[in-house]
Write a structure and sequence with these properties.
By secondary structure, the chain is of the alpha/beta class. It has one domain: 3-Layer(aba) Sandwich (Rossmann fold). Strands 3-2-1-4-5-6-7 form a 7-stranded parallel sheet, with helices on both faces. Helix 1 crosses helix 8.
Length: about 230
């Protein structure tokens, strides 16, 4: 049956690929975005996930159009890369506020309806960097690693209510972010990936579609790496 799905940060990159995948499967898909043009063919609502009032308003719009959110994918995220000695407190706090506390805000709001329905799927988009670390990304790695502890705590807290919480940890993916790399940086990173290439956004979307589907009903608290083997063993 068609489900009400909300994907934060779903207007581009990995988030948009997930939205298109679930839409093609017949779900009623809504996405949040902050800037730029909203994607065509999807219910798009503006929302800054660092603002609880905007989060609540976005959910209200989605619920009015599609009904209570049954599947939440928290994909919105930012980077402010810098070596620790040059990283300001704002560089650190703003990344954590968006990537980790932002996920807390949207999960807390989504679970209202899920608790009433006694079912739900939540998938948090983390990163291979969360598991293996990366120089210059202490803020990003910390925020994305926090999603693992958050998801597993929620899996224990709300599992008896039929709500699953899982994490997908993509490696370097063909998105606007990776396009900013120089050829030398790109090649250095590819050499660290056993499969020898970057991921396609659609490959991340496949993992999310599985975890949000009926076939993953007995999977919760899991971390699924989709990173070409870059982070294996972590």
């Amino acid at each position: 049956m068609s489900r009400s799905v909300l994907i934060t940060g779903g207007s581009r990159g990995i988030g948009l690929a997930i939205a298109r995948k679930l839409e093609a499967a017949g779900d009623r898909v809504a996405v949040t975005y902050r800037t730029g043009e909203p994607p065509q063919g999807l219910l798009a609502v503006t929302c800054d996930i660092t603002d609880s009032e905007q989060v609540d308003a976005a959910f209200g719009k989605v619920e009015a159009e599609h009904g209570p959110v049954e599947v939440l994918v928290a994909s919105a995220g930012v980077t402010r890369d810098q070596l620790l000695m040059r990283m300001s407190e704002d560089d650190f706090a703003s990344v954590v506020d968006t990537n980790l506390t932002g996920a807390f805000r949207v999960v807390k709001r989504a679970t209202r309806g899920m608790l009433r329905a006694k079912k739900g799927r939540v998938v948090l988009i983390s990163s291979a960097v969360a598991l293996r670390g990366e120089s210059g990304q202490a803020n990003y790695a910390a925020s994305k690693a926090g999603l693992v502890g958050f998801a597993r705590s929620m899996a224990r807290e709300l599992g008896s209510r039929g709500i699953t919480f899982n994490v997908v940890a993509p490696g370097l993916t063909e998105t606007a972010m990776s396009e900013r790399l120089t050829d030398e940086q790109r090649q250095t990173l590819i050499e660290q990936i056993p499969l020898g290439r970057l991921a396609r956004p659609e490959e991340i979307a496949e993992a999310v579609a599985f975890l949000s589907g009926d076939g993953a009903g007995y999977i919760t608290g899991a971390v699924i790496p989709v990173d070409g083997g870059a982070g294996m063993g972590h």
